[in-house]
């Protein structure tokens, strides 16, 4: 694929709020790994007051505002923070649930592969974990009506959450089908945003990741 086509695809993805990584789009991630290509992208984005930067862990590329001096841009940034803040509780709740059920020492990171069948087995018939799943299914983007009399409600709930997270860009399905879910660099973005919101906005969140508070501001 030509450099011009890759430039256009990269700029379009960033302006649409895309998180670019090896698993979300390997071609664009490889393109941005070259400094000359990043400068071309930045030159294209600069008149739009946009830029691109790596996440704190260096695993993904994200769109950012070049500056937030304009009142409209500041308003958009605050709305973005509010949207993320409203999603943090169910997302962190789900991360904790996965870590406990799978005895993971660390939260999910890009490249991890999870299976909805495995998680279902780990939750099923464990009352306190099933209760946590039920709470998560009542919140934010994961909200779903459940019938606890159904023997499949745990599996259906787990699959529902995985599908929602895939729609949100946190996972891709290797091969496009099946019960495997591969984590993308959007988890890196989430941990950066959580850290920024906590340190700059004063919103208390329990951050499973970490990062440097001195950073540009993500668009989404």
Features:
220 residues; mainly alpha; three-stranded antiparallel beta sheet; globular
Could you walk me through the main structural features you see in this protein, from its secondary elements to its overall organization?
The protein has 220 residues and is mainly alpha-helical. Helices cover 51% and strands 9% of the residues. The chain contains eight helices and five strands. The protein is globular. The two termini are 28 Å apart.
Number of strands: 5
Q: What is the number of helices?
A: 8
Which strands sit side by side, in order, in the main sheet? 3-5-4
Label the overall shape.
globular
Radius of gyration, in angstroms, nearest whole number: 18 Å
Mean pLDDT across residues: 85
Structural class by helix and strand composition: mainly alpha
The largest sheet, given as strand count, sense and whether it forms a barrel, is: 3 strands, antiparallel
Helix content: 40-55%
Instruction: State the end-to-end distance.
Output: 28 Å
Order of helices and strands: HHHEEHEHHHEEH
In the predicted model, the low-confidence regions spanning at least 5 consecutive residues are 207-220
Give a short summary of the structure.
The protein has helices at 3-15, 26-32, 35-45, 71-102, 116-123, 127-136, 153-167, 186-201, and strands at 50-54, 61-65, 113-115, 171-172, 180-183. By secondary structure, it is mostly helical.
